[in-house]
Automatic annotation (TrEMBL):
Source lineage: Eukaryota, Haptista, Haptophyta, Prymnesiophyceae, Prymnesiales
Organism of this sequence: Prymnesium parvum
Domain CRAL-TRIO: 193-352
Protein name per Swiss-Prot or TrEMBL: CRAL-TRIO domain-containing protein
PANTHER family, per database record: CRAL-TRIO DOMAIN-CONTAINING PROTEIN YKL091C-RELATED
InterPro entries: CRAL-TRIO_dom, CRAL-TRIO_dom_sf, PI/PC_transfer
Gene3D superfamilies linked: CRAL-TRIO lipid binding domain
């Protein structure tokens, strides 16, 4: 296995969550199911986090992309996405908060690194700033702190370059690298297509993930973190592009397929799941408004019934736990069969979508 560059160097400090336990110090099935459902409910509903980072890359310039661009991945997707807006009408209170955040950013933007300035300018449209306003705690400076930290993190971690390198549609290229091949063969997330309401939908094949294999190879495990960053960026870009096209806030649909999931696999997968939660919380706010956990065994449903009452009502409404028998009916209400991937019961071949293969390390 070739050497993979770690996403974080030794000086980088990631946020820790006092609310996130280490549930497998004493392994128990109930703790496992509870934690997985809790993590799914948290990934896209952020609170502000500050991040440190290593030296920045070269300066980048902005570009505009459509949903089709994001799902097909143009030749050079390494520049940040900017969207052009006209005729946007946000609710009055939200518009005031967005305008305030923009003024706060503009007041201090000149003191930021040049590359971070350009990254920030690509995210200063009303609909993107609205995600930071609604995704941060209700304190005036929290949205600013979250936006500032997220822009610096994006530049210092090379998010746009990682996205460009590891976009799943690169899998058809003739000259893919060892890093790309490992991600395209073994990562377990991707984009399925477009739902009935015109927003992209994304799939996480949690039951196919070889978490035990990732845990046994630290370099590959680190590469899977890169893959997660690329996936989160694809979801965030898709949400932004869908919003620009609709001239209103739009969100993506997430399908989490847990068919074949085991407690043994999840025990090994907790570090990667928690990493995804931390990165998503801090840097990719408000990407989805619907999560469908499909082919769910009874223990997941039981755990959801326990944890749901303590979650905010809005979060409860966004998460749907669906049994195997109800999966196809539920998904086809949201996605036309011609757009639904075959392994989910639809007609669309996997090869036609930006999906990775989710193969085990040892076939």
């Amino acid at each position: 296995m070739p050497h993979f560059q770690p996403l974080f160097n030794s000086t980088h400090s990631t946020a820790t969550f006092s609310a996130i336990p280490h549930p497998f110090e004493a392994v128990a099935p109930l703790a496992c199911g509870l934690f997985v459902v809790w993590a799914l409910s948290r990934v896209w509903y952020p609170s502000s986090r500050r991040r440190g980072a290593p030296a920045p890359p070269e300066c980048v310039v902005v570009r505009s992309q459509t949903i089709d661009d994001i799902l097909s991945c143009p030749k050079d997707a390494s520049r940040p996405l900017s969207v052009r807006l006209a005729g946007i009408a946000l609710p009055d209170a939200l518009q005031l908060s967005v305008d305030r955040l923009r003024k706060q950013v503009e007041c201090e933007l000149g003191d930021w690194e040049l590359a971070v300035q350009q990254e920030a300018r690509a995210h200063l449209d009303d609909l993107t700033l609205a995600r930071y306003v609604t995704g941060a705690p209700p304190m005036r400076m929290e949205a600013l702190a979250m936006f500032r930290a997220a822009m610096a993190w994006r530049v210092h971690q090379g998010v746009n370059s990682i996205y460009n390198e590891l976009h799943p549609m690169r899998k058809g290229s003739a000259d893919i690298s060892a890093r790309q091949k490992a991600v395209f063969d073994h990562f377990y997330c991707g984009a399925g297509g477009v739902a009935r309401d015109g927003v992209p939908y994304f799939v996480q094949r949690l039951g196919r993930a070889d978490f035990e294999g990732f845990a046994s190879d630290p370099e590959l495990g680190e590469l899977m973190k890169h893959a997660w960053v690329a996936h989160l960026e694809m979801v965030f870009r898709a949400a932004r592009a869908a919003s620009a096209e609709a001239k209103q806030l739009r969100y993506t649909l997430i399908i989490v397929d847990v068919v074949g999931i085991t407690l043994r696999s999840l025990r090994h997968g907790m570090p990667l799941i928690r990493y995804c939660s931390e990165v998503g919380l801090a840097n990719f706010p408000e990407g989805t408004d619907r999560i469908f956990v499909v082919n769910a065994p009874s223990i997941i449903a039981a755990m959801w019934n326990l944890v749901a009452p303590i979650l905010p009502e809005a979060t409860q409404k966004k998460i749907n736990i669906v049994s195997s028998s109800a999966t196809l009916e539920t998904l086809t209400r949201e996605i036309d069969p011609s757009e639904l991937l075959k392994f989910l019961g639809g007609e669309k071949p996997e090869e036609q979508s930006p999906m990775t293969r989710a193969l085990p390390l040892k076939a």
